[in-house]
Design goal:
32% strand; 4-stranded antiparallel β-sheet; alpha+beta; Rossmann fold; 8-stranded mixed β-sheet; 21% helix
């Protein structure tokens, strides 16, 4: 996951990107349904009839796919990748230690552990197990899934630990005392909710959670941010910020830096606009002088950093600006051109770390403010793929970084201020044979003339005869960039076995900054689909593949992408995998956190936006007289982000109309569709066995 440096996007990205809003009761959702929907009963997530239907579909899918000898092979190969003991450990620097969460065949649920930084850098880490999640689950008779731990700087003796039942986004938050390795009786504890809890100091936390009727917004998020003091009643904790129920929600967090600590609150009006408040030591609030749609990236050295989503005070959309907290003077830190955009912003104790993508290829700069001007120095990290600054912390001068691309295993590097240059410390072993594979960046043009990039991986000896099994993957939403990163599972189960892989960089994503994303918002969503179709047609024009050999795949918002393209152009593909997809665009805003996505997709109840949504909503655009290739829909019962009812209803309607379809729903696992490594491996075997069979890949 990207490191958002305790910014507003840290909260919003974790909580909102296909967000984890408070679930309305299923009866409430169903009672509000359009009674003309004959499959509304499938929205009752754990209803007896619905689960009986799910188990019936699961049994049919597994019976067919497990009969293929490739299923066990793919499952075994995927599990070997997930459980590999020689995989890289991406630790977080916290004080003098590296913290890590690890899963393997012995630790199915995982162990949370730490090692000294020195032994880790020497590649001889001495791991100290802090908490064994398998043992905890057994002792407490709970289906615990580890979701994360946040330590209190600078000592890191206390952590806020998040545990999920079965992989849901709803978590139990428990304070963990590291010296005693216990959950102290006096520690902070929040019952299972989709809460936001973050440190202010050793005896106080920000908390946004469900306090009962009226405390949640219409989108299902907390409407208040409170300060909870140790030992005091949670229900009586004072409110420091609140939003109307028609807003998205409110969250608080603290940025710890050497010069001071900055406590902030976000009052989100919708997904893309929010007020940011800075708190004084007396808890008085001051609204930061930023446009509502600015993307706050952090506060450091008494300056606010934000990426603009619209032109403001002489600075252009997409620029990184800094505002002095005392003088309010604005400085442009980086102004992108037509080929570049800002990918990541991090801070060490001494420098700003800025990752830029130029035509979806990363470059990292180290920034310093000299005589009121920002000077950016390019770091000597490999170019051509994806770079992530890992473990950067405003309390530490040093940091890690990673580099990889679609066929290059991840390189882990370390930047020491003492040496003043990046140094590679290790590289992940290859998980698939790539010696004959070629990675290329290609461009095509969408129907409106816009130039669209995509990455292509193929065998160097591939014949250009239009007969190559090809998988096209895309997302195209929420300003998320699809980059050239190492995909070991896809590499092993598809590329190594002769499959061509294409990764789409379509509008709606963040590849070229806010403008690229905004080009496909709401009633322009079709731009994403047109871009995706243009890449598919280019693959055929280049004699790489043909419809009978082309499959498409996408998850979450990408599930909506491939579901929409599937109903628009069923003639263009022969396989489609929609993972935890969003498909009913006329009811998405009534299911789970769907209302929080209306600033992305539009309001189904608005006459103009609703009419537009219905034109492409996959669930509403299936027709009995059309011929569709046999698709595969996968989801999870425990997904409390995108409601599993989307996929269930789509499949039921296809079956009603007599169309061939496959379906698999993991009974647990949350939005990741798996709660442990074995479940991930089974899901991989399901998807890739289906693709090999559907696209005619020889055994």
């Amino acid at each position: 996951m990207k490191n958002y440096q305790n910014s507003a996007l840290l909260m919003l990205s974790i909580i909102l990107i296909f967000g984890c809003g408070q679930m309305k009761t299923q009866n409430e959702a169903i009672n509000n349904a359009n009674t003309s929907d004959p499959y509304i009963w499938l929205e009752e997530v754990e209803g007896d009839s619905a689960l009986s239907w799910v188990k019936e579909q699961n049994a049919a899918t597994l019976a067919e796919l497990q009969a293929d000898p490739r299923f066990k092979q793919f499952e075994s190969e995927a599990l070997a990748i997930y459980e590999a003991r020689d995989r890289l450990v991406y630790g977080k620097i916290r004080g003098d230690y590296i913290y890590d969460f690890w899963q393997d065949d012995e630790h199915v649920r995982g162990i949370w552990r730490r090692s000294t930084l020195k032994s880790y850098l020497d590649n001889q880490p001495k791991w100290d197990i802090l908490l064994d999640i398998d043992a905890l689950a057994e002792a407490e008779h709970e289906n615990w899934v580890y979701k994360g731990a946040t330590g209190l700087p600078p000592v890191y003796n206390r952590f806020l630990l998040e545990l999920s039942r079965g992989g849901k986004d709803a978590v139990v938050v428990r304070e963990f005392d590291l010296p005693s390795r216990t959950f102290p009786a006096s520690g902070f504890f929040v019952a299972e909710e989709k809460s936001s809890v973050s440190w202010i100091n050793k005896d106080q936390v920000f908390i946004s959670t469900n306090f009962g009727p009226g405390s949640m917004t219409e989108s299902g998020y907390p409407a208040t941010t409170r300060i909870w003091t140790r030992g005091e009643d949670l229900a009586s904790s004072p409110v420091v910020a609140s939003v109307p129920t028609e807003y998205l929600g409110s969250w608080g967090w603290t940025i710890f830096t050497p010069e001071k600590h900055y406590s902030l609150i976000s009052k989100a009006k919708d997904f893309w606009s929010h007020e940011i408040l800075l708190l004084s030591e007396k808890w008085e609030t001051r609204q930061l002088d930023l446009p509502l749609d600015a993307d706050l990236k952090g506060v450091w050295n008494n300056q606010i950093f934000a990426v603009l989503r619209s032109d403001w005070r002489g600075s252009s959309k997409g620029s990184l600006i800094a505002l002095d907290l005392k003088t309010n003077q604005k400085t442009d830190v980086f102004v992108p051109d037509s080929k570049s955009s800002i990918s990541e912003i991090n801070f060490s104790s001494s420098h700003l770390l800025l990752t830029i993508q130029e035509d979806v290829v990363d470059i990292v700069y180290r920034g310093s403010l000299l005589e009121k001007k920002w000077v950016l120095e390019m770091l000597s990290i490999p170019r051509g793929g994806t770079i992530s600054i890992y473990g950067a912390d405003p309390l530490n001068v040093n940091f890690f970084y990673t580099y990889n691309d679609l066929i290059t295993p991840t390189i882990l590097g370390y930047f020491s201020n003492a040496v003043n240059e990046p140094k590679v410390i290790r590289q992940s072993p290859a998980r698939f044979d790539s010696k004959n594979l070629i990675l290329e960046q290609k461009f095509t043009h969408s129907i409106d003339g816009t130039k669209i990039p995509y990455f292509l991986v193929r065998n160097s000896e591939m014949p250009f005869n239009g007969d190559n099994p090809t998988l096209l993957y895309g997302y195209g939403g929420f300003e998320v960039s699809e980059k050239s990163e190492y995909w070991p599972k896809t590499g092993k189960l598809w590329m190594e076995k002769g499959g061509v892989f294409a990764l789409a960089n379509i509008r709606g994503g963040g590849e070229y900054g806010p403008a690229w994303h905004q080009a496909a918002l709401k009633t322009n969503r079709h731009k994403s689909y047109e871009d995706f179709i243009a890449i598919a047609e280019q693959l055929m024009s280049d004699k790489i593949t043909r419809p009978e050999k082309l499959g498409i795949m996408g998850g979450s918002g990408g599930g909506l992408l491939v579901g929409s393209v599937f109903t628009m152009r069923p003639d263009l593909f022969h396989a489609m995998v929609a993972q935890v997809p969003l498909l009913d665009m006329m009811r998405y805003h009534k299911l789970l956190a769907g209302a929080s996505w209306m600033s992305e997709y539009g309001d189904p109840d608005d006459p103009i936006e609703g009419a537009y949504l219905k034109k492409y909503s996959p669930y509403h655009n299936l027709h009995v007289e059309k011929k569709y290739p046999r698709p595969l829909f996968t989801t999870s019962t425990k997904d409390d982000r995108v409601h599993p009812g989307h996929a269930r209803k789509m499949v039921a309607r296809m079956m009603e109309q007599g169309h061939p379809v496959m379906y698999y729903e993991n009974i647990e696992g949350g939005h990741a569709a798996g709660a442990n490594l074995k479940q991930y491996a089974t899901m991989a075997a399901i998807e890739y066995t289906y693709l090999h069979r559907q696209l005619g890949v020889a055994e």
